[in-house]
Amino acid sequence: MLSTGTRGSDVTRLQKTLKAAGFNPGGVDGVFGKKTRAAVLAFQRAKGLGTDGVVGPNTSQKLFGSRDSKYFDGRSDFTPAPPGPVTPGNGSVPAKAQRFINAATAQIGKPYVFGAEGPNAFDCSGLINYALRQAGVADGRTTAAGYQARFAGSRVSRSELKPGDLLFIHYPNSRGIPPGKASHIEIYLGNGRSMGTDNPREGARIEPIDWAHVVNASRVPALYR
After folding, report:
1. Which 8-state DSSP code applies to residue 215?
2. Alpha-helical runs (H) found in the chain
3. Can you tell me the distance from the alpha carbon of 146 to that of 134, in angstroms, rounded to the nearest whole number?
4. CATH number of the domain that residue 116 is part of
5. Is 44 in a helix, a strand, or coil?
6. pLDDT of residue 103
7. Edge-to-edge strand order for the sheet containing 193-196?
8. Does 59 share its domain with 158?
9. pTM score of the predicted model
10. Is the Cβ–Cβ distance between 171 and 184 less than 8 Å?
């Protein structure tokens, strides 16, 4: 179970999920402190659960749509890659794909603002739109779920991922986006890491991939022409 004092990627996932659902954990820092507990309690009250401030199977079912222990056992279900240069994935990266990656990573540290599409602030899909345009791909701005639908015909498996591919991620949310549809989008960089933005406290950043919430992934065909 996850409770006060627990640390790690499971807590980070919990904090992101609470935030997306409209419950403020006070930050996304991987530390289950007083504010995270208060957010859990508020979530439990709202969902008619026992209010103990602990994330066990019942609370996990409501938060993550699953009673699977991987959501609340305090152990990471992915291995964060160490800091360092991004390495090519399965094969070389075409010039356009590299320009796409470079345009996105040049925005590290820019603030997250819902609906923003640059150049001074971004939301997750705004960053994708900006970086694609910088790479010479002008497909038009859409949402994370919109990109998921747009590139549904060029999906790739986890083993086929190459840097520059798009990761479609679902977190429980207050926007009515159902499981299976992307509520968030990031750029796969290789080496177990991705680039994106979804948190006003952190802004655009490179981070370990939260595989537990990745729905699927796609390649942008125009980056390979």
Report:
1. E
2. 9-20, 34-46, 57-64, 95-105, 124-134, 144-150
3. 20
4. 3.90.1720.10
5. helix
6. 95
7. 155-156, 214-218, 166-169, 184-190, 193-196, 205-208
8. no
9. 0.64
10. yes
Q: Angle 9-20/34-46 helices, nearest 10 degrees?
A: 50
**What pLDDT is recorded for position 83?**
36
**Burial bucket for residue 133 (CB in 10 Å: 0-12, 13-18, 19+):** middle
Top-confidence range, 21-30, 79-88, 121-130, 176-185: 121-130
Q: Are residues 99 and 66 in the same domain?
A: no
**65 conformational bin, left if phi > 0, alpha if psi -120 to 50, beta if neither:** left
Q: Yes or no: say if 13 and 212 are a contact pair by the CB < 8 Å rule.
A: yes
**Are 172 and 133 part of one and the same domain?**
yes
Angle made by CA atoms 95, 195, 85, in degrees to the nearest 5: 65
Q: Is 65 in the same domain as 99?
A: no
pLDDT in tens, 15-49: 888 988 899 998 887 788 899 999 999 999 999 99
Total of domains in the chain: 2
Handedness of CA 164, 183, 29, 132 (dihedral sign): positive
